[in-house]
Amino acid sequence: MRLLVTGGAGFIGANFTHSWANENPGDQITVVDSLTYAGSADTLAPLGEAVELVVGDITDAALVDELVAGADAVVHFAAETHVDNSLTGPSAFVQSNLVGTFTILEAVRRHGTRLHHISTDEVYGDLPLDAPDIRFTADTPYNPSSPYSATKAGSDMLVRAWVRSFRVAATLSNCSNNFGPYQHVEKFIPRQITNLLTGRRAKLYGAGANVRDWIHVEDHNAAVRAILAGGRIGQTYLIGADCERSNLAVLQTLLEIMGHDPDDFDHVADRAGHDLRYAIDSSALREELGWAPAHTDFPAALAATVDWYRANEAWWAPLKDAVEAGYTERGQ
Ligand SMILES: NC(=O)c1ccc[n+]([C@@H]2O[C@H](COP(=O)([O-])OP(=O)(O)OC[C@H]3O[C@@H](n4cnc5c(N)ncnc54)[C@H](O)[C@@H]3O)[C@@H](O)[C@H]2O)c1
Predict the structure, then answer these.
(1) Which are the catalytic amino acids?
(2) Range list of β-strands (E), the chain
(3) pLDDT (tens digit, 9 = 90+) per residue, 314-326?
(4) Which spans are transmembrane here (predicted)?
């Protein structure tokens, strides 16, 4: 298999590349990544020559065409991903998420290459806090709230249209919130872990009632591998691990794991337009492809993630001060 992974120097793409390289040592793996602030060559360094890293932009049509021509399948992770950044600078989101996905679609169309497009449950907007029986399914109407989710929604629509109009061999997946190794310290869980590891106080947006449906990155990537192997072309698969937790509950579990008092945190200004609740019904994926999450003990998976950040300070420490300065400027 000749595999092209876009965004493979970022959080989920790098975890995917590590697992794929370990499980399929004979495969040719190429990562294309523009190494924005969110990507790092260091993340792929442990893989040595098992992976070729091409530093380039997915909006570069000539480069993408050349890379897709040499691949049997493309797994498309590359995107601008941080909601807060999309509120202050949406332009990069339109470029990478919409124009970038369009560029990949045109290349896979020309070369007849299999594509799996990675997306988020945030395309569905949010759910009320007081209706626990309602969860997102593949039939839930799109209703994105932020420039991030709007551009991801648009990229999903492009993929669907390219399947229908040009018979591109693509599948899609929309996953809930991931956690695990190599996640940028700007994101909620690694931010709190590294705050505590650097002697700062943990921070909580608003009252912390907002609910996210957490999944370990390895479970997300196992689902992606299952979809690549057996997914139906044109199908959208929702990936989730039935792990709804309020931000307050996540933070208090983390404080407990790290030996702090459960009230040892600061409330900070809430995010503008903050989605209330995400929840995924992943039964279609489980029934059709036999996938199930393995990391179902959330406190244990969170404790393992804390251990990873503790052991890999050299990976995240250079990023930490600048990220916190940005949050402080926004009162968060
Ligand atoms: N993190 C989550 O909880 C989550 C949940 C569901 C879906 N997703 C989706 O998974 C994918 C990966 O998310 P992540 O959390 O790993 O993101 P990330 O921000 O950690 O990594 C994104 C990577 O894409 C690269 N990139 C960005 N723009 C690029 C461009 N124009 N050309 C080439 N490379 C570019 C960055 O350098 C970075 O390495 C995204 O498509 C995201 O929407 C993320």
Answers:
(1) 121-122, 148
(2) 2-6, 28-33, 51-55, 73-76, 114-120, 170-175, 178-179, 202-205, 211-213, 215-216, 236-239, 244-246, 265-268
(3) 999 999 999 999 9
(4) none
- Which mutation among 4, 5, 6, 11 tests ligand 1's pocket best, with the greatest number of atoms within 8 A of CB? 11
Bridge pairing between strands 114-120 and 170-175: parallel
Ligand 1 touching residue 13 (CB < 6 A):
yes
What pLDDT does residue 256 have? Answer: 98
Is any ligand 1 atom within 6 A of the Cβ of residue 39? yes
Residues of the chain with pLDDT under 70: none
Conformation bin of residue 155: beta by default, left when phi > 0, alpha when psi is -120 to 50: alpha
pLDDT at 271: 86
Give the pLDDT confidence score for residue 273 in this predicted structure: 86
Q: Cα of 260 to ligand 1 centre, how many Å?
A: 32
**What percent of the chain clears pLDDT 70, i.e. is strictly above it?**
100
Superfamily for the 2-187+214-243+275-295 domain: NAD(P)-binding Rossmann-like Domain (3.40.50.720)
Cα 172 to middle of ligand 1, angstroms? 15
pLDDT in tens, 238-250: 999 999 999 999 9
320 and 195 Cβ atoms separated by less than 8 Å: no
Expressed in angstroms and rounded, the spacing between residue 35 Cα and the centre of ligand 1 is 11
